[in-house]
Amino acid sequence: MDWAGLCRVRQPVYKERMRNLHPRRRTFASRPLADLIGAAIDPVLARQGFGQSDIILFWDEIVGARLASMSEPLCLRWPPRSRGGTERNFAPATLVVRVESGFALELQHLTALVMERINAHLGFACVNRIVLKQGPLMRRAPAPPRRQPPSQAALTAAAERVGNIGHEQLRQALTRLGARVLTQE
User: Fold this and answer.
1) Do residues 107 and 69 lie in contact, with contact meaning Cβ atoms separated by under 8 Å?
2) Is residue 146 part of a domain?
């Protein structure tokens, strides 16, 4: 038998040994932050009675932009369980919502609609009562304004200043950077 024949015979054995020495490593593909945020904040919200983060994260979508701007969910209060623990009777929770003082009366009139929307979003009758607490809301920081793309004049001026660089991607990156700098001046 020649060397080529020996290599063909031993190759599967070598691959198997290498597989045992280096177990398959998990590859981490990039995932959207929205997919990861639920797992990160669910334990924190569970202490406040929220089994899932859906009510907190999707409050704007559930109640609408107008109601969401004047209210925020605080906690879900579940009724106490029976002592035996064998009963599977489900008792819906009470949702506690903080409301701006002048808006409480209007939200009180809309509680049936809000409960209906919450239960429809969750897919089961989770909430059967809403308790309103008046007080100031914890305001979210406003989103920073989006930067406008540089004008065509700034792009051409930056391209003239960058000059003749051989590497195409580097020249484009420097042109974009120069255009941003020129628009800020």
Assistant:
1) no
2) no
Q: What is the mean pLDDT of the chain?
A: 78
* Residues pairing with 133 in the sheet: 98
Examine the domain organization and report whether 40 and 73 are in the same domain: yes
* CA separation for the pair 144, 146 (Å, rounded): 6
Distances, alpha carbon 177 to alpha carbons 84, 134, 146, 148, 166, in Å: 68, 49, 17, 14, 17
Q: Is residue 167 part of a domain?
A: yes
For residues 156-178, give the mean pLDDT.
89
Q: Which residue range(s) make up the domain with 58?
A: 33-81+89-134
Cβ neighbours of 57 (radius 10 Å): 16
In the chain the first and final C-alpha atoms are separated, in Å, by 78
